[in-house]
Amino acid sequence: MKSPCMANCKNEEGLCSGCYRTMEEIRQWRHYTDHQREQIMQRLSGADASHHCPQCGDATYCGLQAGESDCWCFSVETREKAESGHCLCRRCLSRQPLA
Q: Name one Pfam family in it (predicted).
């Protein structure tokens, strides 16, 4: 089973500090289909992106910006909003102070 795990795991208020999956994604990983796992890995790598992070410029994915009703960021601890008002990538969001 493919996984983005880097064996550098630490729960940073709902995000893994190694691979940046949410704790929910990690818990459910073995239950996801191959397609669902691949989709998450594509989003983590920036290959499937909805926009660029306003802080670092990396390609990132926001479910809401992609027209979905949910986003991965809803399952992590609430952080301070970015000055730009746009969604941050998982790495940049993990560095934001808690709200």
A: Cys_rich_CWC
